[in-house]
Structures are given as structure tokens and as C-alpha cells.
Amino acid sequence: MRISTLALVTALAAQPALADEIWVTNEKDDTVSVIDIETLEVTHTYETGERPRGITFSHDFKFVYICASDSDAVQVMDPATGEILHDLPSGEDPEQFVLHPDNKHLYIANEDDAITTVVDVESRTVVAQIDVGIEPEGMAVSPDGKIAITTSETTNMAHWIDTETQELFANTLVDSRPRHAEFVKDGTEMWVSAEIGGSISVFDTASQTEKAKITFKLPNIHPDRIQPVGFELGEGDKFAYVALGPSNHLAVVNAETYEVEDYILVGRRVWHMAFNADKSRLFTTNGISGDVTVVDVAKRKALKTIKVGRFPWGAAFRPSN
Amino acid sequence: MLWAGAASALDIDISFIRMKPEPVATLSNLDPIPENLAIKGAELAIKDNATTGRFLKHNYSLEIHDLSVGDDLIGVTLDALSDRRILIADVPAAELLRIADLPEAQGALIINATAEDNILRDSECRANVLHTAPSLAMRTDAMMQYFLFKRWTRLAMIEGTYPADVAFAESLRRSATKFGLEIGSTKTWAFDADMRRNASAEVPLFTQELRDHDVLLIADAVDDFGRYIPFNTWLPRPTAGTEGIVPEVWAPVVEQWGAAQLHSRFQEIAERDMEPEDYGAWAAIRAVGEAVTRTNQADAAELRRFLLSEDFGLGGFKGTPQTFRTWNGQMRQAVPLVTERALVMQAPLPGFMHQHNELDTLGVDAPESACIAFEE
Questions:
Q1: Phi, psi torsion values for B207, nearest 5 degrees
Q2: Taking a C-beta distance cutoff of 8 angstroms, is the pair A190, A211 a contact?
Q3: Chain B window 148-207: which residues touch A at a Cβ cutoff of 8 Å?
Q4: Cβ neighbours for B376, distance < 8 A, ≥ 6 positions apart
Q5: Which of B1, B318, B352 best tests the A interface by mutation, with the highest count of A CBs <10 A?
């Protein structure tokens, strides 16, 4: 009897996801919560290493990579079963990372060590370690794979890495405490959010010069509390959705004019986010309230709040098949 | 590359001068004071600056003068000022003023990392001195905001007799008045008995005479008797001030806003917790670093101008940009209210509003400041 039950559980667990999912790391629970996009409910909670933060899927969605910061490891999990397959060498205190378009090289920010570590996920070896500024966090890679970015929170810079040589070729100042970086508009622009500076710097990728700065203003909320952290670009890169931390709002930025068009109230200390497949729904992690807000992108309205673990941090999308 | 080629190398030479008075003898030997308080904070900050400087060709150097009482503070200072115009001070208030008033110190940039005396931000402010140490008033204002927030409005106090105790008690009274509170009955701790053996016998009787209160304030800045008060009081009441819930500029239990990272970097070089004195020194040198990074200048006067401008803001791991007040050179910063084991809240607390900046609900605000040295 016991054996057959076990077999049944295994069979269920090994099936591909029935619906699309959003995976969320819970920094203070050492777990990931899996949200079913159809039912908007948590369907699985899997254990991870200590203090999970960055999360990303391999481009074929066969693996999910998780930065277990306090375990000093990047864990590789089978998304079908939640089983940790192995750890990757990651350097100390990995916080955030980005997977190169080649699906092979993971660029990891080692927050405590002022280093970016490049790991080959197939051979599970460290390919390079690059000295960057203090408390590296934001990570991005250009769509053509030629440039990787690390932003450093205390040095207040974006470091531009040539992925051929794994060496820095430019370092550009941004405002105080940069948190997140993204290549935008086919890689022609590179955006960096600055939490304490309260801005997003827009760089021209070709020249690495700042071409615009996006700032935010909310009525009745002191500017010091408006702290841009994670952000994502919507369909066609027309609008950016920017998490504003302790102001508990998401800003909707017109990516052509760099003007803020709207603010959407979400949960407390909103951190990062992930879209569903057609980018009609946005899922934000709310660190302090311990939940995920589901946003209707077209209507610019919060639809639902989903309770997850304590201090949800990263979010990633997984399609059903 | 932003500064590539354009920037020739820039040298930023900083002196750190420390002269601590002899510690007073306290009842307990449980918590020895680290020998290198503040110094390790300075060392971490210069390391932080150097990492950033590497990308900008900014070379930082730090010269540390660790003096004992009786050493020639002025001679050492004059020597340092002759070729280094940025000076971080970890000295008592009287010595700080002696340094700041030297003719050779005019035009220098002095940052007070540890002296919390209110008067240095008020009638005895100096144009060449900025402060990264909080004023006592900032800390005690934070305490009163907390009591109002909790509606613990009936206050009693036990104060010690050392000058630092009296200053803390005085600042608590001033803050109570500012926020419309009153410290009811007060007793002075003047015992010379050894409380380690008989606190449970003496303290109940001692505190029995206090009128009923919601919370018992303890002003024991030298850490002499305070630890023997909690759980020995006549009435079952929480303690606050220097024992129990304490307003500190920094504490090991502060972990939000990336603070955990600063603690772990500090632990790595100091092999101990980061204390308020370390934070003051760290913030001073990081503020200089931030100003150099943004201006590409190493001149003391230029840096001072930038530090006092709206363009400056230090990420100090407490969730808000830390800027300097233009009327007295005090760094605005949040004040965590902590116990040994956890952060309780962080001031300014919700509901304490200000027309310009909520951080200015803590400490001497522009309208009440008697500082005129910053008027140009």
C-alpha cells in the first residue's frame, strides 16, 4: 500500500505543469512558492538553500536556477519535481544572476565579494571571476550576448563586461544604490534603477552614455520612500513597469518619452516581478507583506493578492509545456 | 567610459584623529569596549572608497592617529592638517572645538564621527565641521516619538551622575518637552555598592518610590548600573533609554535595507559587531568618497560645498538618502530603536510629519537652531 502511494505521488509530481506558473523565492522561508497562473493559487512550495533570492529558468525550461545566498550556492532544481539536482560553484553570497543567450553561461553577482562570477552550467566550472564594485547586484545580458552588466550598490556603477574576454570595458556612474539592470529595445538601450537615488538611468548601449533619466513622484508619499528597484518591460518594450519599494506602488513608464503615466498600488515593499506568457498579467513580489500582487496590465489595476512565504524576492515565469 | 582618459589620477588624502578619554570604572566587566572602535569603521569605508576609486583613478589614503589622553592632540592635528585637509575626528566635544578653531583648520573639512553633544549642532557649531554622529537630540527625539506612537505617556527616569549620563538625561527632558511629554518622577543613581550581588534586593526598593509610569527611562550612558535595573523594578515595567529599548544610530540587529551586507563586510575586517562609533566613522569617509566620485574633486572646500548641496545623498543602509542639514552640518539619518535581539521600529515613525523632510523631526530643526556659522 505504502509503495503504491509513493508511486502515485512520484507520477503526479513528475508530470509537466498543467498550467503556466510563476515561481517566487521566499528570502526568509528558504522556499520557492509556485503559483498556478490559471487558478492564481500556490500549488507547490519547495525547499531551497538558505536565503533564496535570484531565480531564473534555463531557456528550455528544463532547469530552474536559484541563488541560495547564505548557502553560497546556485542551486539547480528540476522544475517538474522540485528536487535539487546539484549546486553550481557560485562564489560567495550569490544574490542575482542572468543566463547568457547561449543557455550555458551564468553571470552571477557575488554580493559580499565585489565579484561577478561566470559559471559554465554544463561543466559546472567557474569560467571567470571579474572584479567589480562593492555589493554587485543587478545583472543583465544584451540580446546578442555580447555584453553583460553588473551594477554595484555601494560603488554606484554599472560595469560593462565584454563576454568574449570576460573583462570590463566600461564603468558608468549611476545614482545611489543601483538595484536592477535590463537591456531594452533590442539591446539598443540599457536601463539601471537606483533605489536611494530614486531614478532609472537610460544608457545608449553603443556609446555607454546616459541619454535620459526617469524620475518618479507620488502625491502624499515623501520622495525618499519612492525607491525604484526591480522593473520589467511590457509587450513590445512600449511600457516599463517599475517596482517602487516602500512606496508600495508600481510605476508605469512610457518607454518612448520616459514619462511616468500611471502608478498602481500593490503590496508592501514591492521588489521584483514577472509577466505571464502574453504579458497581460504581471506578478509582483511584495517583501514586507509576504505576498504577490497580480496586476491586470491593460487596466493598470491590481486584481488579486496571493499569500506566499516570508519576504518574497525574485519571480520567474514557467510555461506549461 | 565615463571618466576614461579625461581624468588624470586624483589623490584623496584623509586623516583620522582619535583621542578617547579614559573609560570610567563600571560595575560589570561583561562587555569590554573594543580597542579599535571607530577605527575599523574608518578602515572599511576607505576600502569601500578605494574599490570605487579604482574605476575612476581616485586614490584614497587614510592616516590614523590613535592618541591617548595627555598626548599632544594639537601638535598632531597641525602636522596632519599641513598636508591633509580632510580630517575625521573621533574626539570629545571640547577637543573637537579646539581643533576646529585652529587658524590652520579654517577651510579644512572636519567630520565629527562620534561626538553626540547637542551644543555642537547648536550654539557651538562650526562652519568647518560636519557631523555624521547623530546628535543626542536625534536619538532622544526618536525615543519620544516611539512613546507617543505606543501611547506610553507616563514616564519615570533613573539617571546616573557621570557627565555623559546627565547629558543624556537632559536631552531626554528636552525631547519630552518638544513632543509634549513630561518625565514625571526622577531618581538619581548614586550608589557605590556592587549591584551584581544585590540588585534584586536594592532595585525594587529604589524604584518603589517612583510614581506609577508606563515605562522607566534609564540614563546610564557610561553603562554602569543600567543592566541591573530590568526585571528588578518594583512595578513590572519595560525600560528604555540606555537599557531595554535603545535609540541607536546603528546596531547589529539592523538588517533591512541591505544592512546585513554592511555588517558582514565589517565582520570580515574587524571580527566583531559594527557599533555606532564605527558607523559614524564609516559614514564620514563614505560621504567624502561619494562627494569625490560625483565631483571628481579632492579639494576640501569643493567637497564641503557638494556635501551640503541637494545633489549629495549617501546610501547609509537605513532606507533613505542621508544628506547634510545646511543650517548646522548634521547628517540627516534614521534612528533605529533596538533591543539586544531585534529592531523594534525605526524613527522617524509613521505620523511624524515635516514640511520638508521627515528626518528633520529628529534633532535640532532650522527654526530652533542657534547655529549661525553656516549662514553665508
A1: -90, -10
A2: no
A3: none
A4: none
A5: B1
Q: Residue A15 has what pLDDT?
A: 52
The reported pLDDT for the residue numbered A5 is 47
Identify any residues that bridge with B374 across adjacent strands, giving them in sequence order: none
Q: Give all strands of the β-sheet with A167-173 in edge-to-edge order.
A: A136-141, A147-152, A157-162, A167-173
Where is A152: in which H helix or E strand? Answer: strand A147-152
Note whether A154 contacts B315, CB cutoff 8 Å.
Answer: yes
pLDDT category at A17 given cuts 50, 70, 90 is low
Question: CB contact, 8 Å: A215 with chain B?
Answer: no
What are the pLDDT digits (tens) for A39-90? Answer: 999 999 999 999 999 999 999 999 999 999 999 999 999 999 999 999 999 8
Cα A282 from Cα A242, distance rounded (Å): 11
Rg, chain B, Cα only: 21
Helix (H, G, I), strand (E, B) or coil at A118: strand
Condensed to tens digits (0 to 9), the pLDDT of residues A49-61 reads 999 999 999 999 9
The confidence band for A11, taking pLDDT boundaries of 50, 70 and 90, is very low
Do the Cβ atoms of A177 and B258 come within 8 Å? yes
B51 shares contact with chain A (CB less than 8 Å) = yes
Cell reading at B362: 529628529
pLDDT in tens, A122-180: 999 999 999 999 999 999 999 999 999 999 999 999 999 999 999 999 999 999 999 99
Per-residue pLDDT at A72: 92
pLDDT of residue A6: 46
pLDDT in the model for residue A207:
97
Return the number of CB contacts < 8 Å for A and B: 75
Which stretch of DSSP H or E encloses residue A190? Answer: strand A189-194
Low-confidence ranges of chain B (pLDDT < 70): 1-7, 193-197
- With contacts defined as CB-CB under 8 Å, which chain B residues touch A114? 51
Helix (H) or strand (E) holding B176: helix B163-178
Chain B residue with Cα closest to A114: B51
- Whether A1 shows a pLDDT value over 50: the answer reads no
Q: Hey, do B10-134+251-333 and B137-247 end up sharing a CATH topology, with the first three levels equal? A: yes
Q: Which residues of chain B make contact with A224, given a CB cutoff of 8 A? A: 320-321, 357-359
Is residue B337 a contact partner of residue B349, using CB atoms and an 8 Å limit? no
**B294 in reach of chain A (CB within 8 A):** yes
Beta-carbon contacts of A304 under 8 Å, excluding residues fewer than 6 positions away, are A40, A293, A294
CA separation for the pair B92, B88 (Å, rounded): 13
Is ipTM > 0.90 here? no
Residue listed under C-alpha cell 592638517: B81
Using a CB-CB cut-off of 8 Å, the residues of chain B touching A177 are 258, 315
- Paired strand residues for A151: A158
Query: Which residues neighbour A283 within 8 Å (Cβ) at sequence distance 6 or greater?
Result: A22, A24, A35, A273, A274, A275, A276, A292, A293, A294, A295, A315
* Cβ–Cβ < 8 Å for A241, A282: yes
Domain ranges, ordered by start, for chain B: 10-134+251-333, 137-247
Say if domain B10-134+251-333 classifies as CATH 3.40.50.2300: yes
Please name the fold of domain B137-247. Answer: Rossmann fold (3.40.50)
Is the distance from CB of A272 to CB of A315 less than 8 angstroms? yes
- Tell me how far CA of residue B98 lies from CA of B73, B104, B109, in angstroms: 9, 11, 15
- Does the structure show a pLDDT above 60 at A222? yes
As a whole number of angstroms, the distance between CA A199 and CA A207 comes to 20
Please state, rounded to an integer, the average pLDDT across all residues of chain A. Answer: 93
CA–CA gap between residue A275 and residue A262 (Å, rounded): 18
C-alpha to C-alpha distance for B171 and A220, rounded to whole angstroms: 32
The reported pLDDT for the residue numbered A321 is: 67
